[in-house]
Amino acid sequence: MSATVPGEGRRIWAVLELLDRQLIARDGRLAGKVDDVEFDLSDDPDALPHVTGLLSGMGALANHIGGSIGHALAAAERRLSADRDRHPSRVDIALVTDIASGIEVDADRDDLDTCRAEHWTRDVIIDKIPGAGHVAQ
Amino acid sequence: MKKLLGVTLGILTAMGGFVDIGDLVANSATGARYGMSLAWAVVLGVVGIVVYAEMSGRVASVTKRATFDLVRERLGARAGLLNLGASFFITMLTLIAEVAGVALSVQLVTDVNYLLWIPLAGFAVWLVIWRVKFETLETTFGLLGLAMIVVVVAVVQLDPSWTQLWHHATHPSVPSGEGHPTYFYYAIALFGAAMTPYEVFFFSSGAVEEKWTRSDLMLNKANVYLGFPLGGLLSLGLMASAALVFHPLGVGVENLSQVALPTSVALGKIGLAFIIVGFVACTFGAALETALSCGYTMSQYFGWQWGKLVAPRDASRFHLVALLSVFVAIVVGLTAIDPIKVTEYSIVLSAAALPLTYFPILVIANDRTYMGEEVNGPVQNTIASIYMVILTVVALATVPLMIATKAGS
Amino acid sequence: MRRITIAVLVLIMVFALLVGLHPMTPARTRDDYRHKAKDTAESVLSSVQTARLVARVGSRGDAFGPYVSVMLSESEVGADGAQTSFESIQPPDRYSDLTRAHLTELIQRSSDVLSRLRISARRGELDRLEDQARPLRHLSQQLEAFIDDPGPR
Amino acid sequence: MLLSELLGVQVVSSTGDDLGRVHDVLLVQDGPVNARGQAGLRLHALAVGKRSFGAQLGYAQDMVKGPRLLRVLFHRSPELVPWSAIVRRDEKRIVVDAARRGELSEPTRPGS
After folding, report:
1. Are the beta carbons of D27 and D42 closer than 8 angstroms?
2. What domain range includes position C71?
3. Nearest by CB to B251, which of C12, C46, C144?
4. What is the DSSP string of B168-187?
5. Which of B74, B213, C139, D107 is the most exposed place for a label (fewest CB within 10 A)?
6. How is D39-80 classified by DSSP, letter by letter?
7. Strand, coil or helix: what is D22?
């Protein structure tokens, strides 16, 4: 982990230490990857941009990858989520409690916006199979 | 005492779980065709998987992140996705071969065509994934796989001239009438059979699921340093049995059933019974590992919940991927595509794809901010770097050799 | 650039698969034909020798009935497969016609024995196998001789 | 603004030098403190250079030091360009003030 220099704050390389890392919800459940990082640019030209949120999900991933593969992913995502609103799933930076090998988020996984497809798969497919609710013995 | 038992159990599991359909086919086929003169490729592959798996297990224990999680983290989304495509395809190919292998093994005791067993075998694989705990399945099939020790007994029973076997293994040469490209093609097949990527996906995901920590590093080392080489011994046993029985007669191994014949010749019905139990356990265990690995790689790339510690409904996409993978394996298997050919392609392509996952793990094993004191030492790094070069050479040579030798024919 | 790389890789893969799954290509010269005849003979020899081993362990009670039966069917399928692909190759000249006639006869005789073995094994008459397999010994020697010098006798 | 909108963008100096592309950005946890006691992350600088793979792997940032074989291949320090030196920025190009681009010449290394 990067050292925290008093009065200066910990330094984090966004691509190396934040992007593409695992989001972990409060209950220890996995809640997607950091697919993009959102900044706010203040009106003051001398101020530095600051991180406001982490984007996660197929839409953000497609945008981040770009190129032909990104387009293909984006098309797949649009097809799968036709009736949903298009904004990418987002985790507010205020919920993030630790940035390490995983990014710890102070929220239950089921409350996070990033797990819509997980819930859809659960409700429409997996729950229909007997034994879906039991932990393996 | 209990700890010692745990370590022993781990070693035995790693040993029994080492062999899968790729090892069965590749070792027998090369033993029959080249005698022991390709034993070096098995040794090279076993040392390679030891280096690779030890790093992956250590990285997983320290960071709590499994292999494909780290592949994405270190290579980025784009290169990671291409990597996922290749790794998933090869793991899928292996799964097809393993499911067909279970069916072929059952055919040997029932004489009912293997195509009829494929759907049943696939269903059984899925059911175990759906219902059975990680530890139970790993231990059960690992220990049942120990039945393969019978091939070593068979080799002893065949009473070979050990000095001659040793001489052939230590003085490798291309037999007259055989081209160099084909010889090296088979070397790559053996290398890929020993060093299949799914083994590492499964091993590292298991380490994360069983909540390994720094204090389990000893267990990791014991499993890897003892279990895998002992498993490699089974591979060499398969090779030697084929070299002794088939090589002098000019028999080529084209079917899984032939792999059992030397043991039957040497030890009769009891030996045959053991080796067929070994076949079923090894292929079934590997089918489980590959089906799970399909789920692991995909889920770990996209950050979905994975694993068997939670109910299937709480890891819904992971279970969906595993379910679909098994389904695809059944459908492809039922097309009557030659399972032995699929196996050969899967191991050769495995060898070609190895650098894709090995490379990021090697980088992370050197990341002090991640690994702290557990980074690679200078000896580990030297060996690991040599393997990085070997893997790159193998990867570059595979496709040209495949074309030049018409896939080893 | 990356798209091109992927396309090339896919093409290579498809090509390799096609080549791998279709080992027999037309023969253009006599040497080429001899070479393919030799490969075929090797493949048939492999089936014949496997069948001999299986017949032996079967007769001596060293293997289970279903296993023996599976192995013998596979040997028969292997020999028949080799014969079919060999017969589909066009012999380029008269000399090759003679080579073809000789090898086809060897394969045919082997196939007949393999079929009889398979039938007995299916009936559970394992103790007869070793006797029935006896002609394979001579056939395997002839096949070996053919492999050493592929041509008409 | 998204991180993906910065990565890969070409960077030139106001005097016309091509500095390469953006490979990583340096965040420092020195912003306003939120309700959980966490300081906000502010974007201080862009890591700019000709080749990107070393930055992706962690060699360029000096976070990964071995093995020697890979370090030799991938270790190429990027130039750190302070955000405040940016004069103009659009989707394709970032122009930085030639006079101010070296303000962070003491490379800010994590943990150093």
Report:
1. yes
2. 26-148
3. C46
4. HHHS--PPTT--HHHHHHHH
5. B213
6. BPPEEEEEEEES--HHHHHTTTTTSB---HHHHHHH--PPEE
7. strand
CB atoms within 10 A of CB A96: 23
Q: Where are the domains of chain D?
A: 3-51+79-104
Best residue in A22, A35, A55, A129 to probe B by mutation, most B CBs within 10 Å?
A22
ipTM for the predicted complex comes to 0.86
- Taking the mean position of all CA atoms in its chain, how far away is CA B54? 15
CATH of the domain at C96: 1.20.120.660
**Minimal CA separation from C87 to chain B, in Å:** 19
Q: Which is it for strands D10-13 and D93-96: parallel, antiparallel or unpaired?
A: parallel
Residue ranges of chain B whose CB lies within 8 Å of a chain D CB: 74-76, 79, 360, 362-364, 366-369, 375-376, 381-382, 384-385, 388-389
D3-51+79-104 to CATH, choices 3.40.50.1000, 2.30.30.240, 3.30.300.20, 3.30.70.100: 2.30.30.240
Angle at which helix B228-245 crosses helix B150-157, to 10 degrees, equals: 40
Closest CA in chain C for residue B114: C70
Contact partners, residue A46, CB within 8 Å, separation at least 6: D84
Taking contacts as CB-CB distances below 8 angstroms, the residues of chain A near D108 are 11
How many CA atoms does the CB half-sphere of B146 hold within 13 Å? 14
pLDDT tens-digit series, residues B370-397: 888 899 999 999 999 999 999 999 999 9
Q: Which two tokens stand for residue B131?
A: 């219902």
Q: CB-CB: which of A32, A66, A102 is closest to B64?
A: A102
Contact C50 B261 (CB under 8 A): yes
| Residue pLDDT, tens place only, B243-277 | 999 999 999 999 999 999 999 999 999 999 999 99
User: Is A137 close to B308, i.e. CB distance below 8 A?
Assistant: no
Tell me the CATH number of domain B23-404, given options 3.90.1310.10, 1.20.1740.10, 3.10.180.10, 3.40.50.1000. 1.20.1740.10
| Strand pairing category for D86-89 and D93-96 | antiparallel
Residue given tokens 């080992």 in the structure block: C23
Instruction: Pull the structure tokens for residue B387.
Output: 């393997």
CB within 8 Å: C21 and B252? no
Check whether the bond before C92 is cis (ω within 30° of 0): no
Tally of CB atoms within 10 A around C135: 15
3-class secondary-structure state, position D30 = coil
**pLDDT, tens digit (0-9, with 9 covering 90-100), for A65-121:** 888 888 888 787 777 665 555 667 889 999 999 898 899 999 888 878 777 788 888
- Which of A10, A11, A23, A33 to mutate to test binding with chain B, by most B CBs within 10 Å of its CB? A33
- How far A120 CA lies from chain D's nearest CA (Å)? 28
